[in-house]
Design goal:
Elements: E1 9-12, E2 18-19, E3 35-38, H1 74-80, E4 89-94, H2 100-114, E5 120-124, H3 129-139, E6 146-150, H4 154-163, E7 173-177, H5 194-211, E8 214-219, H6 232-236, E9 239-244, E10 251-259, E11 267-273, E12 276-279, E13 298-305, E14 308-320, E15 328-331, H7 335-347, E16 357-363, H8 375-387, E17 395-397, E18 400-401, E19 407-408, H9 413-422, E20 427-431, E21 445-449, H10 452-459
Parallel strand pairs: 4-8, 4-9, 5-6, 5-7, 7-8, 15-16, 17-20, 20-21
Antiparallel strand pairs: 1-2, 1-3, 9-10, 10-11, 11-12, 13-14, 14-16, 18-19
Protein name: DNA repair protein RadA
Pfam family, one: ChlI
Keywords: ATP-binding, DNA damage, DNA repair, DNA-binding, Hydrolase, Metal-binding, Nucleotide-binding, Stress response, Zinc, Zinc-finger
Length: about 475
């Protein structure tokens, strides 16, 4: 069906697909709420304008103005690469109630104390200034140089940026909580829509670059865990951070998904308590139980969150079942992967009792483990529970287990062993490395294995029953 000349069309802001009438979901990229009305496309030419500032030779550009400023919050500085960069725009995303506003209020207070020469502006579109102050009193974030403004209009918010600390050149840090609650009268659409989010973000980026002001935008996430709004929002900003955590756990993790000024393979750990968020330089103790006796069904592993090694404990319980389909329950681990490991143990390691037994596998402290390097520790914990044989004291294991029962190498082997030694572990089982294991930490007894049955024979006093 041909479109009439001059008739308005509709276009997807994500992939560019066009149609003559509006639809709620783009059939091309399957995104919801991204199809917007567009006028007839016409060719336009923009004439050159007078330059406000001519281009400079790269040798003459002063890069010191973009140096890091520490926030005094160690875990945040670790993730950002050293601190906040003047003129940078940071997008902080996370689920409701995870602690984004609490963290940023602490950041605002800490920056205001560390750099009193310029104020810090906190713009809230979801709460009143009184509500934000009550939270600040609870977490000890009341300080001079921190200004609050409850606004939801973009024009008013930009006015606050211009007026706050005008004599000092404007605020050094502006926090907008959240970007989905602000709207501009210059464009159509309700707050939180694609057009409004694009306009609010573009305006704040322009103000941040012009005033050399660090800006943090709080973003909501969808049910799938993605940042709400157009995908181009993540391309416009300089840094994208994800704040994660289970509402039933005190642990909170901060990751940098995108960072123009530093690495993206590091993670920050925080402890959420009544006084706010506390940086955890060594969070391993949260994920290991306090049991001192050898108990069947427990195994320690070392996981890598980016470049950071973390100690975690896997616990398993195997019980007889009278049901035709025994129950499997998993917490903190990938359920399909645990089911695969149970099948590998049953078939490759000859643990036939698993076929008619209930299996419960969980992590300690609410930590979530997703990397395949935890496969070996999960399998050893389940086998230990099934055979009622405890694993050795001060013992760790890590390695990926395949469907054929082989144990595959994992990255960061040396870093994991060093972390295990630092925490007092003396025995370890690791995958067999064809190139050899370099510089095993002194004092550690490390055994290399190539298959799961071999690992079970080493640590479970003879391992599973032998095939007749």
């Amino acid at each position: 069906m041909a479109k009439k000349k001059g008739a308005p069309s509709f276009e997807c802001t994500e992939c560019g697909w066009q149609t003559v009438k509006w639809v709620g979901r783009c059939p091309e990229c399957q995104a919801w709420g991204t199809v917007e009305e567009k006028g007839q496309v016409t060719a336009r030419t923009t004439a050159a304008s007078n330059l406000a500032q001519p281009a400079e030779a790269i040798h003459d550009v002063d890069s010191s103005v973009a140096s890091f400023r520490a926030t005094s919050i160690g875990e945040l500085d670790r993730v950002l690469g050293g601190g906040l960069v003047p003129g940078a725009v940071i997008l902080m995303a996370g689920e409701p109630g995870v602690g984004k506003s609490t963290l940023l209020l602490q950041v605002a207070s800490s920056v205001a104390r560390a750099h009193p020469e310029q104020p810090v502006l906190y713009l809230t579109g979801e709460e009143s200034a009184a509500q934000v102050k009550k939270r600040a009193e609870r977490i000890g974030a009341i300080t001079d140089g921190l200004y609050l403004a409850a606004e939801s209009d973009l024009g008013q918010a930009l006015g606050q940026v211009e007026e706050t600390g005008a004599e000092a050149g404007g605020p050094q840090l502006t926090i907008m909580d959240s970007v989905q609650t602000f709207s501009s009268a210059a464009v159509d659409g309700a707050a939180g829509g694609v057009t409004q989010i694009r306009e609010v973000t573009a305006s704040m980026i322009e103000a941040a670059k012009r005033k050399n002001m660090t800006t943090i935008l709080v973003g909501h996430v969808t049910k799938d865990g993605n940042i709400a709004g157009p995908r181009m929002l993540e391309h416009l900003v300089d840094v994208v951070c994800q704040f994660e955590g289970d509402r039933h756990s005190r642990l909170r993790l901060l990751r940098a998904v995108k960072n123009r000024y530093g690495p993206t393979d590091d993670v920050g750990c925080f402890d959420l308590n009544e006084d706010g968020l506390t940086s955890l330089a060594d969070p391993s103790g949260l994920f290991v139980s306090a049991l001192t006796d050898r108990v069947p069904g427990t195994c320690i592993t070392i996981t890598l969150e980016g470049r950071r090694p973390l100690t975690a404990e896997v616990q398993a319980l195997v019980a007889e079942s009278q049901a035709s389909q025994p129950r499997r329950a998993v917490s903190g681990l990938d359920s399909p992967r645990v089911s695969m490991l149970l099948a590998v143990l049953q078939r490759r390691a000859r643990l036939a009792t698993l076929m008619k037994s209930e299996a419960y596998v969980a992590t300690v402290g609410g930590v979530k483990i997703t990397e395949p390097a935890a496969d070996l520790s999960i399998a050893l914990a389940v086998a230990s529970a099934a055979l009622e044989k405890p694993l050795p004291n001060r013992f760790v294991a890590f390695g990926e287990v395949g469907l054929a029962g082989e144990v595959r190498p994992v990255p960061g082997l040396q870093r994991r062993l060093q972390e295990a030694q630092r925490l007092g572990f003396t025995h370890a089982i690791i995958p067999r490395n064809p190139d050899g294991t370099d510089s095993i930490p002194e004092g550690m007894r490390v055994k290399e294995v190539g298959s799961l049955p071999e690992a079970l024979n080493l640590v479970l006093d003879g391992g599973p029953p032998k095939e007749e």
